[in-house]
Amino acid sequence: MFLGTHTPRLDEKGRIFLPAKFRDELAEGLVVTRGQDRCLAIWPLSDFVEQTQKLRNAPSSSKQVRDYQRMLASGASDETLDKQGRLTIPAPLRAYAGLDKDVVVVGAINRVEVWDAAAWQTYSEAQETEFADMNDDMFPGL
Predict the structure, then answer these.
(1) Is residue 28 in some structural domain?
(2) Does the keyword Isomerase apply (predicted)?
(3) How far, in Å, CA of 137 to CA of 142, rounded?
């Protein structure tokens, strides 16, 4: 499970240090791809395979399914962490998420998200009120 908010810096080669507590779960390989809301999503390879297996079984006759499959897969890159725990983020994905030097790495339970620091600040401030207003109607039994 991925939890917490971390603020590594993106280096000149497009690498970030992932938090040490995330590295074990990502050691066998990972997939970094476009996330929703203009962030990047990092999945352990096995979880990404499981997720995409569900998409393979979805009806390709649905435009929404095709669109989601294309957006997810076309931006995906399978990667490994280097010995220091750094992830190199491909240039097209850095551009998609607007990543420069200041980034935020967010644990999102089943995945890791990487955000531009200013975009994360704007997003999290906007979500604070909605988060406070969420209730059992949205998530029954939670």
Answers:
(1) yes
(2) no
(3) 10
pLDDT band at 133 (very low <50, low <70, confident <90, very high): confident
Do the domain assignments include residue 141?
Answer: no
Q: Assess if residue 138 is contained within a domain.
A: no
Residue 139 lies in a domain: no
pLDDT digits (tens, 9 = 90+) for 74-92: 999 999 999 999 999 999 9
Handedness of CA 106, 108, 73, 127 (dihedral sign): negative
CATH code, domain with 124: 3.40.1550.20
Query: What 8-state DSSP symbol labels residue 19?
Result: P
pLDDT tens for each residue of 19-58:
999 999 999 999 999 999 999 999 999 999 999 999 999 9
Single-letter amino acid code for the residue at 130: E
Smallest Cα–Cα separation from 79: which of 60, 93, 66? 93
* Domain encompassing residue 40: 5-133
Question: Rounded to two decimals, what is the model's pTM?
Answer: 0.90
